[in-house]
Amino acid sequence: MIAGYISKLFLVFFGYAYPAFECFKTLEQKHGNYTVQLRFWCQYWIIVASLTAIEILFDCFISLIPMYGEAKLAFLVYLWYPQTKGTDLVYDAFLRPVVMQYEPNIEERFRNLRPKLGQLLVFYLRNFTERGYTLFQDVLRYVVSSRSSSEKSKGTSSL
Predict the structure, then answer these.
(1) Distances in Å between the alpha carbon of 76 and those of 2, 87, 98, 108, 127?
(2) Distances (CA, A) of 94 to 33, 57, 86, 102
(3) Whose CA is closest to 90, among 53, 45, 52?
(4) pLDDT tens by residue, 14-43
(5) SS3 for the chain, per residue?
(6) C-beta separation of 95 from 86 below 8 A
(7) Average pLDDT over the chain, rounded to an integer
(8) Which residues contact 88 (CB under 8 A, 6 or more apart)?
(9) Which of 31, 42, 68, 79 would bridge with 86, disulfide CB 3.0–4.6 Å?
């Protein structure tokens, strides 16, 4: 359990926090190889976002892979580590060709999905707030009633 926590801590630091800080520094620099570094970090975040989407979709299978967190940490460090330039390789050799092949189809699906997403979001927010409010009231009534009944039982037992 401790090893898993430490692994997640390293993953957050080396997979997200450090690259985010490096990306921030790149955005704030106004000289040098600004565009090369910006392209590098954009590629990194595209790969990380793609990996995260795959993880979310296939979580039930990925959770069965032993030491997946450690492998993911090693992969993310490989991506940004200057000597390996893994981001260039993974992006140019794998991700870019796949996305370019399906880009028109993906773009069309997103274009069709955008209006429906707004309606879906409104539907879920409306239902969540109504049901959430009702659930909150029910829980509050239960807590108040159980507290008052326990106080009554204490009062009768002391007589």
Answers:
(1) 21, 9, 20, 31, 39
(2) 25, 19, 11, 13
(3) 45
(4) 888 888 888 888 878 877 777 888 889 899
(5) CHHHHHHHHHHHHHHHHHHHHHHHHHHHCCCCCHHHHHHHHHHHHHHHHHHHHHHHHCHHHHCCCCCHHHHHHHHHHHHHCCCCCHHHHHHHHHHHHHHHHHHHHHHHHHHHHHHHHHHHHHHHHHHHHHHHHHHHHHHHHHHHHHHHHHHHHHHHHCC
(6) no
(7) 83
(8) 40, 43
(9) 79
Token representation of residue 8: 């997640």
Per-residue HEC secondary structure of 132-143 comes to HHHHHHHHHHHH
Q: Rounded to whole angstroms, how far apart are CA atoms 102 and 104? A: 6
Contact 62, 55 (CB under 8 A): yes
Positive or negative torsion for Cα 69, 71, 72, 74: positive
pLDDT of residue 75: 95
Beta-carbon contacts of 77 under 8 Å, excluding residues fewer than 6 positions away, are 14, 15
Is pTM, for the whole model, over 0.70? no
